[in-house]
Amino acid sequence: MDLPLIHKLIEAYKLWQEYLPHFPKTSRYTLGSKIDQLFIEMTELVYSASYMSGEKKLACVKKSSSKMDLLKFFLRISWEVKALDNKKYAKLSEILDEIGRMLGGWIRQLNEKLPPEAEERR
Q: How confident is the prediction for the chain on average, in pLDDT?
């Protein structure tokens, strides 16, 4: 399954990979590594969810959305400590906002598809 969301995540990760070598050494292996790991985990969750169904898919997409929130948080910290400049932060944020909207839409769609009895377990 080749979701547009996967393509967007790959685009964001490739951009991140261009920025990471320019991170200050003091942050590259801590904050930079954490951001890199979150990108990978989020992409893995979205990819896995694309092959799941029902409540498992919803749980996986929600977990991916949570990773997205953490990713944005750590990117903001990297911008605040000046490891990322304004332009790079803005470009990544723009793509991540779009990914966030895509994830939100997917969660809404999955919520609508689940039967009412599954409502209690969400």
A: 93
Give the pLDDT confidence of 27-59 residue by residue, as tens digits.
999 999 999 999 999 999 999 999 999 899 999
Separation between Cα atoms, residue 81 and residue 61, nearest integer Å = 30
Residue showing tokens 């990773």: 67
| Domains recognised in the chain with CATH numbers | 4-114 (1.20.1440.60)
- Work out the angle between the directed axes of helices 4-19 and 31-49 (0-180°, nearest 10): 170
Angstrom CA distances, 32 to 8, 16, 23, 49, stand at 20, 9, 7, 26
Which pTM was predicted?
0.89
Tokens at 80, concatenated: 């605040």
